[in-house]
Design a protein that fits this description.
Length: 366
């Protein structure tokens, strides 16, 4: 049964709302002041909260602020009940995260329509999240076992070969087999590290307090790290002559390890999905609004608009046409890192022509 919490210090209004909502089949909790209301919300986690603004102990703004600081209650739909209709007070409530306002005196239909609208919106958001989780499960079930099995098979095969034939192998042959085992081990290690990083990012994205702590991290002279990562990726791809750098620097709000991963994923993709001889451009600029923008441009097969819209973990597009390694986490990791630090990652692509990954991050400048 849907549970609604009513926080209202005027008993006649509180009781009228309780009777109205119970008649509509809702389970109702009531509180006569903000302090008790906040305690009940954290104890029972209702599906929706109706709250007066002017109350003893804690006013409605304080109740909302308190609940916004708790990840268990931060997303509960919150509707203010108020006799104050001035724009300034409405803006203050919406800024704090209120979902709607009901102005006293309100009608029965006003109350029920506001509740239905907010509950429907919450149900739609929950359904969307569940669909994303189901989609992730499907892709994990398809991709992860294969990606784990491939390097493990290589490690086990070469180890078995070495154990059974070591008496007949020359030192150079043993060195070659050991090198192959090392390569497969590094691939497996990278896969596990990326999976753990993605899981950590997803958890942190749902923890407002933890994400806020991360946003206090900063990096000085971002251009130095951009150049370092770009040159390392170009060297790894044996395409140093294809790299084009045009960098403006800034101090930005992101940790160095996360910025390194973000750059590595995007620049590696630019080289991976383009042919030798095609340039890879890495540019950075400080825009007039103070944002720091990195644009990474590659010229290869690109993605369709539908593929760009479907970017997510464990997705590899056109895998049936192209042989490629990896678990499809790169773009999802880069996008989540940018979002956690208050920025964004936008992909624009023209198939078989050009793909641009545009990262926007906050600078430390006031």
């Amino acid at each position: 049964m849907t549970q609604i919490l009513v926080i209202e210090d005027e008993e006649p209004i509180r009781e009228n709302l309780r009777e109205l909502l119970e008649a509509e089949g809702y389970e109702v909790l009531t509180a006569a002041d903000g302090r008790v209301g906040a305690e009940l919300a954290q104890q029972h986690l209702p599906d929706l909260i109706l709250s007066d603004i002017l109350m003893p102990e804690m006013d409605g703004y304080d109740v909302l602020t308190t609940l916004q600081q708790n990840r268990h209650t931060a997303n509960i739909p919150f509707i203010f009940l108020t006799a104050r209709t001035d724009r300034e007070n409405m803006r203050a409530g919406m800024t704090l995260g209120a979902d709607d306002y009901l102005t006293k005196p309100f009608t029965r239909e006003d109350v029920l329509q506001a509740i239905r609208t907010r509950l429907a919106k919450r149900s739609a958001l929950q359904a969307e999240q569940e669909a994303k989780i189901d989609d992730l499960r499907r892709h994990m079930a398809t991709m992860l076992p294969h990606e784990l099995r491939t390097p493990l098979t290589g490690i086990m095969g070469y180890a078995t070969f070495l154990r059974e034939n070591y008496e007949f192998l020359q030192p150079e042959q043993i060195r070659e087999v050991a090198g192959n085992i090392q390569n497969y081990s590094q691939r497996l290690q990278q896969l596990v590290q990326r999976f753990l990083l993605y899981a950590e990012l997803e958890l942190q994205a749902r923890d407002d307090l933890g994400a806020e702590a991360w946003r206090n991290e900063s990096l000085e002279n971002a251009a130095d790290l951009i150049a370092h990562v770009a040159q390392a990726e170009a060297q790894k791809a044996k395409r140093e002559t294809d790299l084009r750098l045009d960098l403006e620097t800034a101090d930005i709000r992101i940790s160095e390890p996360h910025f390194y991963v973000l750059l590595e994923e995007l620049i590696e993709n630019a080289f991976k999905f383009s042919e030798p001889g095609q340039p890879v451009h890495v540019c950075s600029r400080v825009e007039e609004n103070g944002a720091f923008v990195i644009a990474i441009t590659g010229h290869g097969r690109g993605m369709t608009p539908e593929q760009v819209a479907a970017i997510g973990a464990y997705r590899q597009f056109d895998r049936d046409k192209y042989e490629q390694q990896g678990q499809g986490l790169g773009l999802a990791i880069a996008m989540r890192i940018a979002e956690i630090y208050g920025g964004s990652l936008v992909i624009k692509s023209e198939p078989n022509k050009e793909t641009v990954a545009r990262v926007t991050l906050l600078t430390t400048a006031p």
